[in-house]
# Entry
Amino acid sequence: MAATIKLFIVDDHHMVIEGIYSLLQQETQLEWMGHATNADSCLAFLRVRQPDILFMDISLGETSGIDLCKTVKELYPAVFIIGLSTFNQQSFIKKMMEHGASGYVLKNATRQELLQAIETVRLGQTYLSLEAAQSISNQQSEGVPLLTRREKEVLEQIAEGLTNQEIAEKLFISSTTVDTHRKNLLAKFKARNVAALIMIATRMQVI
Amino acid sequence: MAATIKLFIVDDHHMVIEGIYSLLQQETQLEWMGHATNADSCLAFLRVRQPDILFMDISLGETSGIDLCKTVKELYPAVFIIGLSTFNQQSFIKKMMEHGASGYVLKNATRQELLQAIETVRLGQTYLSLEAAQSISNQQSEGVPLLTRREKEVLEQIAEGLTNQEIAEKLFISSTTVDTHRKNLLAKFKARNVAALIMIATRMQVI
DNA sequence: TCCGGTATCCTGTAAAAACAGGATTTTTGA
DNA sequence: TCAAAAATCCTGTTTTTACAGGATACCGGA
# Structure
């Protein structure tokens, strides 16, 4: 690598901060600018200086990493963000990427993986750790049925626990119409009943 | 402290291992015996040598830290175990304690907290990190309801889309019993119906 | 030993969902 | 503009769930 790459990390777990420091401390081409343990102090730091790459935990106590990711990208588009998480939750990964993250590594990543992620992201490319990549490519889009606007609305209301009658009143349609949509939803998701429907839909991140 | 305290850590996240090493490396009265990234190699190590204190992650990939905790305590009652987790999940903490853990710290613990935990546990007392203690006392309010073994089984089957009758046959019980469990599940999760139940339960990562 | 929690089972009713098999109107994109 | 897709609405029947209000048996911990 040519120039020094400036890094910053925001994570509410000291062990993780120390761990990532420790794993990368020998790399002379990397410069640690510091760390923050919450969204506010991270933003406060960024107002003064910006790193090239920002490691960001997905769950920052109260504030979600997703939100912070969005904010940072709006204010400082040049900062590349790499998500950090112990969860291999594809929904989180997806949302972070949608909000401008450039990459994603799990906290059980090795030194090699971290370096690879930094390299890749710095070039403006996307890095997904192996497990994360698997997780994304596996389920998603494969087998996710295409829902109409109305079907999605009805599905959300069902998930809220409303009955057909209640949904009908809420959406100003007949309960038999709701029933039809329900029927179509079950067919599209190949679900036997509403329990399986909600289960499958949440797994597919439709709701 | 008088004698050297021997430590070992089992955690499947490199960052956490590096982090805890890093946080405690300056303490001369502490001796790191090493680390393991899974239950098997941890047990393999223990067959040869035993630490005074064993830091143990609650989620070790496939194997649960809960199980490992139990096994270790059966084989080596003299080893004090301190649970480690990013989750502030009261049920996990409780289970670990029930299975012989002497303490519990969250992964966002500071150096001081870790030292305090080690000190306390070494004396045979119980150490719960502040947040963990709060979490235990709070419990019900906004937390995940405590499910029994059977309720969890039934919940899983409901999520699969099985009817009461089918679940009954599968678990070799009466369908009215399944109905009772279902009733209790709805009450515990404060759900109006099965749709809301599955929604809430998945959100809480119970299923 | 006794108590509380768990698990089991029951009867009965009302409500809701699931299933079958339609039809009509509205929207929309090639 | 015209067909396809979407959204709307029926009438039924059957199955399942939700809810009410019980009872009994077992087991592990105080």
User: Anything to note?
Assistant: The two ends of chain B are 45 Å apart (CA to CA). Chain B has a mean pLDDT of 83. Chain B has ten helices and eight strands.
